[in-house]
Amino acid sequence: MELPLLIVVSSLLFALVAAIAVVIRCLSQRRPAFVRYESEKYFLDPKTSTKHLFPNLLESRDSVYISVVIPAYNEEKRLPIMLDEAIDYLERRSHEQQSSGTDLPTGSRFSYEIIIVDDGSNDKTTEVGHKYSLEYGCDKVRVLTLEENRGKGGAVRLGMLSARGKLLLLADADGATLFKDIERLESFLYKSSKSEKDILHSLAIGSRKHLEDEAKAKRSFFRTLLMIGFHFLVWFFTVKTIRDTQCGFKMFGRQVAKVLFPAIHVERWAFDVELLLLAERLNIRMGEIPVTWTEIEGSKIIPVFSWLQMGKDVILVSLMYTIKAWDIPNYRHIYN
């Protein structure tokens, strides 16, 4: 091909790609469409059979120390095991702190809430949650039942936007991470912060990267190849500073949650990648903290299909922020 013709073809291809990018940007919603059905604004008090309005993260002040948000889809079997461990820890810590009479670094006493987000399950996940709400009270355990399956990212977002905590913890329903390891995440927030304000503007990410060699030894060659490929895609296209983006154990300061969760577009498995990409772009203080993790049977991830979907979403996230089709939220006015 002669040089002038090559230049013409290259120019046409560049113009075509640019035109496609412009069209995508014009047709895309710069801020995510956020739909919350009327029934999803309320939680049930099983003691009185009355419904109460969830608070709005963006409009209300914190009223408990920590909110634990648990996305759950068809988790009637695994959820009770996870809740027993979590509530045992939270109750014990609450009693110990009350007995000591000392305040936490945030200037508050230890108190908690658990929000179970039933992501359109067709089993008894909601009924299991109500059983714990009946036992411990709906001030401590609340169930947010979604009318339809939103995906893990959609469920987590709605749960976080309904939370009352100074700190907000994402914890998977399978209980794969030792719940007591929230202390490791808290420790990072405290040690990396100079004030209570800084704590609320920080993010701690539970990580399994120290277990990678052991995991590779147990997985099949094909699954190991998929995992390595996904990690490469994440690093190449999006998140540079966090190795394990997918661990379901993350702690958000309240102000960070206010910025990130209303801004995410991805509602399926790769929502963590978009969250952490935004955190990087906004220079939010964050750290990757090793946690104790055990493989639990019953994963909802479908081999190959889920990984392909996640890979597609990672590339989509990179593209949409690169061509500015999706907005990066304004963080400065919230921090100042």
TrEMBL record:
EC class: transferase
InterPro entries: DPG_synthase (IPR035518), Glyco_trans_2-like (IPR001173), Nucleotide-diphossugar_trans (IPR029044)
A GO molecular-function annotation: dolichyl-phosphate beta-glucosyltransferase activity
Pfam families: Glycos_transf_2 (PF00535)
GO CC aspect terms: endoplasmic reticulum membrane
Enzyme Commission identifier(s): 2.4.1.117
Ranges for domain Glycosyltransferase 2-like: 67-259
UniProt keyword annotations, A-Z: Endoplasmic reticulum, Glycosyltransferase, Membrane, Signal-anchor, Transferase, Transmembrane, Transmembrane helix
Subcellular location: Endoplasmic reticulum membrane
Record-annotated membrane-spanning stretches: 6-27, 220-238
Membrane topology of the entry: Single-pass membrane protein
Pathway membership: Protein modification; protein glycosylation
Any GO BP: protein N-linked glycosylation
Similarity-based family: Belongs to the glycosyltransferase 2 family.
Entry protein name: dolichyl-phosphate beta-glucosyltransferase
Taxonomy of the source species: Eukaryota, Metazoa, Ecdysozoa, Arthropoda, Chelicerata
